[in-house]
Design brief:
The chain has 664 residues and is an alpha/beta fold. Helix content is 39%, strand content 18%.
């Protein structure tokens, strides 16, 4: 069966699927739901919470009618379930009037919203059956109904494409259901408990593939460049720093220097919390490289982060006579030509850039060290392409990550890297104070933000992508409109989100960085690469929808100056949010994240690359079992056929993903 055989998928929709990396029936079946609407039970109206989606049921109290506001139509009803009365509105769906009647009992699924002090549910879906409904991430040009229908037409192919090659004794040992059954259950769930088992099996398969791919790609240690310099030069950079290093920074620098002088190519991960001082360790490595007569390339995932590194490097390196240069994809032709020339002639010693650093047009004179920041946002091929531009021998590689994960987990996920950890913060930093803000204190919180903005301080307000998988811009725009017309009226507000035009996004981020914008309303686009010391408040709307590690990353955007900073978490109080209140330690939070987030949080998450193995939040026990299972597959000769098949699948699964843009 081919995708072209599926009813409802014409030429344009097939092209839309192709853009979403769905090239065949197997890819379509592997496109698992991102979440589920559990409509098997309904919640009393008086227990519904603003911002949360749920199923509710009641009698219609009024005869539905259509009202028009220009081109906008509105159908409004009141629903009573005995515990409360709720206003329900459908915009631009006039046909709903014909489906509803006075006294009718109706079951609906939607999100409770509050705007201008009016609480209602807008555009809910009518629930025909008390079932669990899968919801898929929106693919542009493919309506949800068409996607569901297409998957349904292909379900007879599940067993063909998802034959379970994990030997039965191992499936029994680790209590795993059949893989094809897990895929089928993910698309057509019967009960939530069964979904947990299906998610666990799919997660296990991803981990097995990941570990086998790492095993296959792991090579022997390669001969590397030996960096050597005079005793008078080796510590010059550290001695010139305007601050003292922490003990953890000094230890990491010693490990990196030992690698650089060992004669074996360094392949090291430098892991540290937000603001822990990883950049200084990386720049010391760059300094050792440069004074030994080589060039260093530092690759970051965003132009904002590139400019941040450039500013720091120039401040610390230019007094030492070291020339730093930029290379960005957005550069004008003349600028880029000049930059390429200085790189090829060796006049630029530290080159900082984005993916432009691996362009075929870039020729390094003597590349000796490659530093990649936020490595999980790059593919392995991207890093390798940069390494392949070395002058002679394999260059040294230093990978930076501000995403703390438990060390036992890191040893599995970064199996091919040596690891250094910076587990302390520079002296003098005030810890960010975190508070959980209930619904009835939301207005007071925004009044406080207003006061702080008038005093010259700045704030971030982050809201999550809506669960229905629609355009992420919708959630931030709704909040922007609400605040600009209400509690923050008259305050200079900015808006930033991932799908925004790049030039608009950069303008907003720069406006905030230079103090022209007082409050930035954004999605998680601000998670990496924004350093604004004057920002003292981080507000996270619906914080209970984020993972702990991501909440911690977002909190790390404030507390970078000398003023006391605050993080306000809006959402239902739970154990995860209490952890944020309790601690500012990223490694403690990461451990708690792995303890608290089980396979239930993995339901239907799509796997695009190695970063998702880290970001999906697998529980430690599952990772340990997958590691043990991989070793059994590799060592037991009776499993050799399965080992070979699974290894082949692993390479096929990950090479196209991790070697291109898998870590996005």
């Amino acid at each position: 069966m081919q995708l072209s055989d599926v009813k409802g998928l014409g030429k344009n929709r097939l092209q839309a699927l192709q853009k979403a990396a769905i090239l065949g029936v197997k890819d379509l079946l592997a496109y698992l739901p991102i979440y589920y609407d559990d409509c098997t039970e309904h919640i009393p109206i008086n227990q519904m919470r603003v911002g949360e989606a749920c199923c509710f049921q009641g009698k219609i109290l009024n005869s539905p009618s259509i009202r028009y506001f220009g081109k906008l139509s509105m159908v409004n009803i009141k629903v009573d379930d005995g515990t409360g009365i709720l206003s329900v509105v459908w915009f631009n769906q006039p046909w709903m009037c014909n489906q509803l009647s006075l006294g009718m009992t109706i079951r609906l699924h939607g999100r409770l919203t509050e705007k201008n002090n009016i609480i209602s549910v807008v555009n809910p879906k009518i629930v025909d059956k008390a079932e669990i409904y899968p919801r898929y991430a929106t693919i542009k040009g493919i309506p949800q109904k068409v996607l569901v229908s297409a998957i349904e037409q292909c379900t007879q192919e599940i067993e063909r494409y998802f034959t379970d090659h994990l030997p039965l004794p191992l499936r029994i040992k680790y209590a795993l259901m059949d893989l094809s059954a897990a895929i089928r259950l993910s698309h057509y769930p019967q009960q939530m408990d069964g979904l947990l088992e299906a998610a666990r099996r799919i997660s296990f398969e991803k981990l097995i593939h990941y570990l086998l791919a790492v095993r296959a790609s792991r090579g022997n240690k390669q001969q590397g460049i030996i960096f050597s310099t005079s005793d008078s030069l080796v510590n010059r950079f550290i001695q010139a720093l305007p601050f003292n290093l922490t003990q953890a920074q000094s230890k990491a620098i010693d490990s990196v220097r030992a690698d650089l002088s060992s004669g074996t190519a360094m392949n090291r991960l430098l892991q540290g919390d937000v603001g822990s001082g990883k950049t200084v360790v990386a720049l010391d490595a760059a300094y050792q490289c440069i004074v030994s007569g080589y060039q260093c390339a530092l690759m970051a995932p965003t132009e904002m982060l590139v400019h941040q590194h450039m500013k720091t490097a120039q401040q610390l390196f230019e007094p030492l006579g070291i020339r730093c240069g930029l290379l960005l994809g957005s550069m004008k032709a003349l600028q880029k030509k000049k930059a390429l020339q200085t790189i090829s002639e060796g006049k630029c010693q530290l080159i900082i850039g984005t993916h432009a650093l691996i362009s075929s047009k870039v020729q390094y004179r003597r590349l000796g060290l490659v530093i990649t920041d936020e490595q999980h946002r790059f593919g392995v091929r991207q890093r390798k392409e940069l390494e392949n531009k070395a002058y002679t021998r394999v260059p040294h590689t230093l990978v930076l990550s501000a995403t703390p994960i438990p060390r036992t987990v890191a040893l599995v996920l970064y199996d091919d890297l040596d690891i250094s950890i910076i587990d302390s913060m520079p002296a003098g930093r005030l810890p960010v104070i975190t508070r959980i803000v209930p619904d009835d204190k939301r207005e007071a919180m925004y009044q406080y933000i207003r006061q702080q903005a008038l005093l010259g301080n700045q704030a971030y307000i982050v809201c999550p992508r809506l669960d229905d998988g629609e355009d992420e811009a919708r959630s931030v725009r709704e909040l922007f409109d609400e605040l600009s017309e209400g509690m923050l009226q008259g305050i200079q507000l900015g808006l930033a989100y991932g799908s925004q035009k790049p030039e608009e996004k950069i303008e907003m981020l720069n406006g905030f960085a230079y103090g022209k914008i007082s409050v930035l309303i954004a999605t998680t686009v601000i998670e990496v690469g924004i350093d604004v010391p004057n920002a003292t408040i981080m507000v996270i709307e619906n914080a209970d929808r984020f993972g702990l590690s991501q909440l911690h990353q977002l909190r790390g955007r404030v507390g970078r100056g000398t003023k006391q900073s605050w993080c306000f978490l809006l959402g239902r109080q739970n154990e995860r949010l209490e952890v944020m209140v309790e601690s500012n330690d990223g490694f403690f939070i990461a451990q708690k994240d792995f303890e608290l987030r089980g396979p239930g949080d993995l339901l239907g998450s799509r796997q695009h690359g190695f970063s998702d193995i880290m970001s999906e939040g697998y529980d430690v026990r599952l990772i340990e079992q997958a590691k043990e299972c991989t070793e059994l597959l590799a060592s037991d000769i009776s499993y050799r056929d399965s080992f070979n098949i699974l290894t082949k699948q692993a390479i096929e699964r990950y090479q196209s993903a991790i070697e291109s843009t898998a870590f996005n």
